[in-house]
Design goal:
By secondary structure, the chain is mainly β. The chain has two helices and ten strands. Strands 1-2-3-4-5-6-7-10 form an eight-stranded antiparallel β-barrel. Strand 3 and strand 4 form a beta hairpin. Helix 1 runs antiparallel to helix 2. The longest helix has 11 residues. The two termini are 19 Å apart. 29% of the residues are buried.
Length: 211
Amino acid sequence: MATGLAFMLGAGLMFAEGSVLRLRATAVGAGAPSVPWTIELFRWSTEVERAPLLAALAAPPPAPSAAPPPAGRAAGRGGRGGRGGRGAAPPPSPLARLASAVKAAPTLGFIWGDGITGYSIKYAWRASSPEGTERIVLVTDRRLGAHTPDWAPASSAGTEAAFTLVEMQIDGKGVGEGKTSLTSTVAVDAAAGTLALDGYAAAPTMLKVTR
């Protein structure tokens, strides 16, 4: 595997053929892991690959109305309604649908910590601003810092998810910050066409990022 870093300032984060984009991240905050993380990315998600994850958070279509039972059979066996009286199982939540879509997505890179097993990156998106700032969104297949439960508030709904979304803002010098779904809600940024953190500006910084 090639280890060259293709990082073109002003033109966005670009990949040369066979290269790997590598960023360093250090966790911050109470209970943060003491070891640095390395982000290695082989490529960005294609529009086709992003589509199932974006659709997972969309509102499900309304369930079709059940047809009334034939006359004389409404009560079922013994007047108790039989199995039909139990009703259909509730549809999976948007978070559960997104978790399934994340698992089915191809691996685009890894986030390495101090363990022998990295976190697979299943979603990778970027956009650059006229000022040269890069906005990057990654989604891992497992909860980031899964072995450090005190790193994220126990009250956060994101800590229950099997995946973690990491949104980063990186300046033209390759230095920036990262915030995660461990403390914030995952949403769809319809204008940008990507998954994102709901309320990024107010979310606590959890990672310091460098090249």
